[in-house]
Amino acid sequence: AKLKRGMNEGKLSPFAAASVLADAVREENADLVMTGLQSADYGYAQTGVILAEILGLPHATIVIELDATGEQLRVKRELESGWYQWYTMPTPALLTIQSGISQIRYATLKGIMAAKKKEIRRVMPAAPIRRRQQIESLYVPEKTKQTEIIAGSPAEAAATLVRKLREDARAIS
Fold first, then answer.
1. Using CA atoms, how far apart are residues 97 and 99, in angstroms rounded to an integer?
2. Which run of H or E residues covers position 63?
3. What is the distance between the alpha carbons of residues 102 and 47, in angstroms, rounded to a whole number?
4. Which strands make up the sheet holding 59-67, listed edge to edge?
5. DSSP-assigned states of every residue in 101-131
6. Closest residue by Cα to residue 135 from 50, 44, 52
7. 96 in helix, strand or coil?
8. Does this model's pTM top 0.85?
9. pLDDT tens digits for range 71-88
10. 68-74: which pairs have CB atoms within 8 A and are 24 or more residues apart?
């Protein structure tokens, strides 16, 4: 979704995009709303989750498999380090879908002709769009710390580590 204001053209923040989508989706009373995981531009990965919150829907993120045969949804989510989670959730719900979940299908000539006759409903935002996020600067963090190997027996190393955490880093008291 894009925001156009004369010469100041910019992309919507995840919250603004979710707000506009919520206005369009709310009156549909959908049992299932699916969004992409993240955008190809900034990759915020927030719009779908914010949309679920605005609509008051349960949600699952990074969905790689879906079974919607019963009253509930059974989704497989991708976690860190090659782990997966199967999760059962009620409908209506919102899912953010990981790329690669489905095979590309090409439309038939009959499908293309039928699509040309479908109405494209235009939905205007219910309220003026306000920007809530703004990137002020981007930078590469500077390296400020050094790794230190603490030698000695395990007991000596532990005592030295506690002393350094207490006195140098002031991380513990």
1. 6
2. strand 59-67
3. 21
4. 32-36, 93-97, 59-67, 73-78, 84-89
5. SS---PPPHHHHHHHHHS-------SS----
6. 44
7. strand
8. no
9. 889 999 998 888 999 999
10. 68/32, 73/32
